[in-house]
Give the backbone structure.
Amino acid sequence: MKNCNLIENLINSDLLYKDFTSPIIDGLNSAKAVQNFWVGLINYMNEFISPLISASNYFGAVENLKALEKSPYENVESQLDLLRFNLEIAMKGFNGVLTFLNDYSNRERQELIDALFNTICPGEGETLKNVFKNKAETLNRIAVEYPKAIFEVGTEFGFHFERGHHDIVAETDRFILYKVSPTDKGVRVDDALKPVIVIPPYVLGQNILAFLPHENRSYTHAFANQAIPTYIRVLKTVSDHDAVQTMEGEDDVRDLKYFCEHLYKRHGQPVTLNGYCQGGFITVCDLATGELDGLVDTLITCVAPIDGSKCTGLAQFLKGLPARYNDLAYGGKTLPNGNIVADGELMSWVYKLKSIDTESPVVSFFRDLIMLSQNGQREFEFNKTATALNYWLKYDKTDIPLGITKMSFDSFNHPIEKDGTLPVKLFGRKLNIKRIKEKNIAWLICYGENDDLVEAPSALAPLNFMDVEVTPFPKGHVAIATSWSNPNSAYGLHKVYGERKHRGPVRFQLDQSVKNR
């Protein structure tokens, strides 16, 4: 405790008014601060409730039909099972909120105690007046300034193909193949190098792979800036193209084959397929069909759920659902033309439900309050990584063709069989992962050591069937596309690092070009 006359300072009316009473009135009773608190919290709640309303509507529409197919007993039994499941999720979320708020209140209480003593016995730390002022400013940030910063970073986030910086080299009814231009103006693409096609996930979209390209934080530009002929396959807008809405896995294979043939002629050598997340799983299925034989000799998969059933969180979530409700029909969105697609907003919401203890709107709100607090900084600056990630999560959602969604759905519900047979059929025939080894396709698997979406056992499932080169990266699911895509980072994608000489995906691609010369 500070060495001061506590009673003397307390009865000092000037101090009591200026440094004690005034901040309480200005901070706690400020109508603006209270308003910002509720506006901010309601915004977070709305982002969670909106897909809940959509899910309820889809559920009602499907149940109206299914209820007629089942007996009253089966209907009641299934609904009671669903009630149990919902209560378990609600309890998990409630416990998560209590745990987080307990930690948050302990943190805040200690800050207030320190500020109280600094007010009574002036010292180097913050006084109550400053603390409450900072709280009011933080509430204004989360309700007003942060949403604005998130929206504005959209001009820097992603590819922005509409600006014409990337050439269209091929096109089908469903996809456009773009050649990615380097952001480094001193780099000229060497068309003699081995070409790579980046296959983004249907769920996450392509823009996460061009996170902040003009700040050297872009997965695809990490390849292009090394003079590698880099292409990205981009799905056309689902809402505007009937061929996308109704596409099946076979269409994915045919279109990818067309692009590979085009690049084979253009560069005179087989291409590398580079699938990120769901794009990696889809690519493995495409290769297993044999339709790409002779056109592809190298594969890179990054944080890809090759065996979705080993993604502990999501797979267990789906297994916990009563069997009747573990059905894609409950996530189907009927478009004005009658075609049904998987609701992209609802798909994102399912991932939040899976981790409801840490991703509930209340926890997210208070977690961001901590992030946006000034913490002694003289001038506050928004973290561009956080704003760009939030822009992606808020504005970059897209609906997904139901046929493609079913491929991933089957993978999360059924493991790869012991003989290597995948849980997906294409062209009416079984697919086996061992075909990739039989065709001597060089394969690099990259995964996140702390990835809680695609855990390591899922990404590394191919090791049960063949020898595959593996490169671990620190952090989570999108770190390879955000943190480590910066060439100056500790784990730059073009580097070799660690005692085991792990190769980043760009380094692996460059080495394949040298090997093939």
The first strand starts at residue 167 and ends at 171. The two ends are 73 Å apart (CA to CA). The chain has a mean pLDDT of 88. The CA atoms of residues 74 and 454 lie 35 Å apart.
